[in-house]
Amino acid sequence: MSEGIFLSIIVQGVKNMTWQRLVRMAVCAILLCAAAWPAQASQEGFEGLRVFYFGNSLTGNAMPGLHPPLGESAGRHWEVEAAIGPGWQVWMHWWNSIRQNRANRRTRLVEDGWDAIVVQPFGRRGLVDVRTEVFMGQVQFDEPTDIGDVNAAAEIARTFLEANPEGRVLVYTSWPGLTGVRERVREIEREEGERRKLTHEEMEPLRREFDFAALWLRPHDPETGEGAATSRDYYRQFMEGLAERLPETARAGRLQLIPMGEVFLTLDRKMRAGELPGLHGIGDYYTDGVHLRAGLPRYTLAATFYAVLFGEHPVALDYELFNEIGNYESGKFGFYVHQPDLGELIEITPERAEIVHDTIWEVVKGHRWTGLSGPADARP
Fold first, then answer.
1. Is residue 134 part of a domain?
2. CB-CB contact of 74 with 317 (8 Å)
3. Which of 294, 290, 288 is closest to 330 using CA atoms?
4. Cα(302)–Cα(348) distance, integer angstroms
5. Does the residue 28 lie in any domain?
6. pLDDT tens figures, 87-114
7. For residue range 43-64, what is the model confidence (pLDDT) as tens digits?
8. What is the DSSP letter of 97?
9. Is-contact 228 124, C-beta < 8 A?
10. Nearest C-alpha neighbor of 317 from the set 296, 333, 291, 344
11. Residue 6, in any domain of the structure
């Protein structure tokens, strides 16, 4: 509805209303707006963004080096810097990048005027984990310290927000590992006398048997750690805990989620229904137990980053950047790429791209924590 039509309706309605009724209507409108918390993030001014990522190889799988040219292909300036460590958990970034100012990262985070940060939880620590030492005493704290995902992410966010009070804090979800891979690796090690990664052919039956939904939809029990950082329920509890630590950011709609697990779940269902040509299930995306193949899988990650960060459908992106194997050369775009994780590239065709784009937008527009939806009742 245009602004002019809207105002005309109001003026015509006022003629037939008492002052008291108008006041009651105004109060109700205010209450309805407040009920939509968490708020939608304003998408104005997102033509250009400077974003700092904290993660591990799963963040690396999103190909941060290709984000700037990908954004440029859609007419957006997308500047990226990343602190990525192999297998790193959130507390490691808090301790090394922020507390220890490793590689001058805290200084850069505070002084260089970033618009947003992205933090990737990676299990093992759970939501809360109070310790005095880690790694058999190699890391020691002066007093009992909570290195759980919620507190560690909150500490990184607070450091960022103190210097950038209007900044956005985004959480990038990890995903469940492919079942059966470790067991098969051990079997081969016993048979061949050496440990190695599974070949593409050896992975195929495990990909076909993978039940992503069963793992992603399992409940997270904070006591046992079941489903830590690899289930929907974990991220529900994580985001609620982080919102308690960062209430103003959450209320402003600037605490957001990049919901890869939900995108994978929806794609998995479409693949199983035969809607994505040549793909049987989301297991086809995997190179090994957790890393993703080049081409369509890694593009899916990057396009989801884009959709949430810029608040728009990813249809304008040039997906051919991810079809070109030369673009995965380590260091070519300023970031390390671990070549063994690339596996065999899954080509991005126009038909596949259309389905992936629409699926990403369907998920992010319908999710409570992306900052792009309305009231979130009954959403994941």
1. yes
2. yes
3. 294
4. 13
5. no
6. 999 999 999 999 999 999 999 999 999 9
7. 444 679 999 999 999 999 999 9
8. I
9. yes
10. 296
11. no
CA–CA separation, 238 and 229 (whole Å): 9
Provide the CATH number for the domain around residue 112: 3.40.50.1110
Please give the pLDDT value at position 288. 97
Number of domains in the chain: 1
Q: Point out the residues of the chain with pLDDT beneath 50.
A: 1-37, 42-45, 374-380
pTM strictly above 0.85: yes
DSSP state, residue 94:
I
Q: Which long-range contacts (CB under 8 A, 24 or more apart) does 135-141 make?
A: 139/95
Is 17 inside any structural domain? no
What the block records as the tokens of 74 is 């859609």
User: Does residue 143 contact residue 90 with C-beta atoms inside 8 Å?
Assistant: no
Q: What are phi and psi of 67, to 5 degrees?
A: -65, -45
- Report d(CA 23, CA 3) in Å as an integer: 21
Task: Look up the domain containing 250 and give its range.
Answer: 48-365
Taking the C-alpha atoms of residue 373 and residue 5, their distance in angstroms, rounded to an integer, is 25
Please say whether the dihedral angle defined by the alpha carbons of residues 328, 354, 119 and 222, taken in this order, is positive or negative. negative
List pLDDT tens digits, range 63-84. 999 999 999 999 999 999 999 9
Asked whether the beta carbons of 89 and 123 are under 8 A apart, the reply is yes
**The amino acid at 293:** R
Which two tokens mark 237? 């509890």
